[in-house]
Every structure is written in structure tokens, then in C-alpha cells.
Amino acid sequence: MDVFETVKKIVADILDIEEEKILSRTYLIRDLGAESIDLLELAVSLNAGFQIEIKDDDIFLRKLRRYLEETKEKGLDQHSYLAGQYPFLSDARIGEILKELKGGPVLTIADLVSYISYYQNK
Questions:
Q1: How many CB atoms neighbour CB 48 within 10 A?
Q2: At a CB cut-off of 8 Å and minimum separation 6, what does 42 contact?
Q3: What is d(CA 113, CA 103) in angstroms, rounded to the nearest whole number?
Q4: Is the pTM of this model over 0.85?
Q5: What HEC string does 31-95 produce?
């Protein structure tokens, strides 16, 4: 089973939803209604399922808004700064995130897959 299929199965089990409702572009919080306790359970399950250390703040983009504030305070380029903080996200995805911020939480299933794939290959 590939990374996406495994993540999809874990998310479906934790949120008690059908796997077919989960696509790579599905928002974990916006679309699926994941809450803090779900994210904690998800981190534990992903850690066990993939045998990598899951850093909650990184995989769930928890510090994203703080990083954006830092860029304003320090006069830094948002895109470049986020790329340094989240090396598992592509430049294109960082650009999408910056455009999507006003819509609410931006974390997608694809972001989880990117995180896991990046750290499995390190």
C-alpha cells in the first residue's frame, strides 16, 4: 500500500468516515472536521504506521500563522521563509497555502503525504 492509501485509511478510521470521501486535495479540518483530539490520534497512528517521528507542529502546520507574523516583523519574504520551515512542501503548494489562508485551515491530505514521504526518504 502506498503512502496516500495508508494515510487515507488511517484518517478514515480516526474520523469514522468512508475512505472514498478522502482525496489528496481534501482539507483535514475544513472538509473533514478534524479536531485537536483527532490530530493527536492521527499523529500517533501515523508514527506507528510509518515508523517515523511525527512532529505535530510541522505535520499539522500549527506554527504557520506565527511564521507569517515573523515574516512581517522581520521584513522577510513569506514564501521563502515558509519553504525553510516546511521543506516537505513544494514551492507550488506553499504558493497555494498563501492564497488560501483567508479560507481557514489549509492542511490537506496531500500535505500529510508530503511530510511522510519527505521524512521516509531522509
A1: 11
A2: 10, 11, 14, 34
A3: 22
A4: yes
A5: CCCCCHHHHHHHHHHHHHHHCCCCCHHHHCCCCHHHHHHHHHHHCCCHHHHHHHHCCCCCHHHHH
Domain boundaries, the chain: 3-120
| Per-residue model confidence as pLDDT tens digits over 6-48 | 999 999 999 999 999 999 999 999 999 999 999 999 999 999 9
Q: Give the model confidence (pLDDT) of 58-75 as tens digits.
A: 999 999 999 999 999 999
Kindly report the length of the chain: 122
User: Among 1.10.10.10, 1.10.1200.10, 3.40.50.720, 1.10.760.10, what is the CATH number of 3-120?
Assistant: 1.10.1200.10
